[in-house]
Amino acid sequence: MERPVHFVHGPIAPQQNSRRMIALVVVGALHLGMIYALAAGLAQSLYQKLPEEIKVAVEQPKIEKAPPPPPPDLAKPPPPFVPPPEINIQTEAPQTNAITIQNKIPTPPVAKPTISSPVSIGRAHQCNKYYPQSAQRLNEVGTAILNFTITADGDVTNPSIAQTSGHDELDQAALECVVTWHYKAAVQNNVAVAAPWKAQVVFKPGN
To answer: What is the pLDDT of residues 5-26, one digit of tens each?
Structure first.
C-alpha cells in the first residue's frame, strides 16, 4: 500500500519573488509597446488622410452649363405679307392772290389852326411881396422856372417847378406868387382855349 504524498509548502524564497516581478514587468512592457505601436500607426494614417479630406471639402462643386436652346424651327412658314393701305393726300393748289397797286394821289396835310399866345394883363408880374424875410436876411437869391397852364379864362393852374432856384424857400414862394397872375387867354379859331405856359421868377434884393 502506497503512502500518500504530502506537499509541504514552506516559505517562498526571496529569489523567486524577484523573478516573478521581473516577468510581470516584462509582460506589462510588451503590452504597452504593442498598444503604443497600434496607436501610433492609426494616428499616422489619420494624419495622412486628413489633408485629402479637407481638400475635398474645400473644392466647390462644378456648375454644369445648361444645354444650349434648340435651334429655331426654320420649317415654319413666314407670316403672310399684308401690304400697307394706300393713303391719298389731296393737296390744294396754291391760290395766287392778285395784288393790285393803285397809285394814290397823296393828300396834302391839313394845316392845324394856329393858336395865339396868351398875353399878360397889366404890368409885368412881380413877386417881391412873396420874397421871404428870412431869405432876404440870409441874402438868398435865385431864379425859379415854373410850368403851368393858362385856362380859357386866363387864370393859372397846375404850377410846378421846372428848374429850382437852389433854395426850397424861394421855390415855394414862386409857386404862391404865380397862381395870382392873370393872362389874356390863347385864341384858336376865334375861341379862347387853355394853353401850357412857362415863366421864371427872380428873387434878389431891390426888385
So the answer is: 444 444 545 566 777 788 888 8
